[in-house]
Input
Amino acid sequence: MRTERLLLPWLAISFCASFATVARAQTPATPPSQYKVVCGHDCLAEFAERFLYGLTHHDASAVPLSPNVRYTENGAQLAIGDALWATAQGLGDNKLVFTDPASGGIQLYAAVVESGLPSMLGARLKVEHRQITEIETSVLRRNADDAAMASFAVDRPIWRQQVAANRRVSRQALIDIADSYFDGITQGRGDATPFDPQCTRFENGGQMTLRADAPNPVMKMSCQEQFAAGMLVIVTSVSHRRYLVVDEDNQIVSAIATFDHRGNLSSVPMERGRGYKPNGAFTRPFSFLIFEAFKVVDGKIRQIEATVFSVPYRMSPGWSD
Output
């Protein structure tokens, strides 16, 4: 039953392709996009399903891959069939998929069972000529009892909340809003980024803002309050910023970047004359590879989902900026 259910999307793709052939014979040709793809949200979502099916069934032949497809995992270029392709055994309970018909782009987050243990998958796919040409992944391998798996990649209603056409912002504005988020982090400014008061951020399944039962006061703060307090300036730069999947219809912008921590940051002035001195891991150089998605409502960031993976300081993610 599971296999049949997963095969349905692939049959749908084949049907769509056949239907499109008939339609082209009856209607004037649609000019091809600069990204060489005519594939809507549902079509791209089917490519995402097929990718996850092939990945978890160790069957690359089930995925419509380009002959020159490029694949990276945590910044390392690998062969199709290696790493997660060889160890993934199935999907967990949660999954988020964001699509961009204008670019043929897909960004997804999915719980994966790998060698009997849970993993968090962030992935970016690119579809051209109805083939996947790029696969970029970040895989966070977790312990068997990691409670955060239950709240990772949850398809919360806010992600599907409709935004009226007259309340949407443009593609470039969505990118600018996400970019201002990274600027607000490094500048320690709460006024640099347009936040909704209910903005909620999840990182690796953990709720990092507006958490009433948080063990520390920082996680009880809103997104804007954390930025204004300067708590995130331990990120000394945000490099390799890319915005390759932008869903204008649902007002979602996805980003991939590296958060750099140079390790020698001096004490940061805080409210009431106190100072914050980074400690622990943040006293030595390292970076985070970040896959991050933002839901924007009325031009303000309302929801955030991110995977955060530790990598060498200023490491390139392996793709052009």
About this structure: Confidence is low (pLDDT under 50) at residues 1-35. The chain is about 25% helix and 35% strand. Residues 158-311 form a domain with the Nuclear Transport Factor 2; Chain: A, fold (CATH 3.10.450.50).
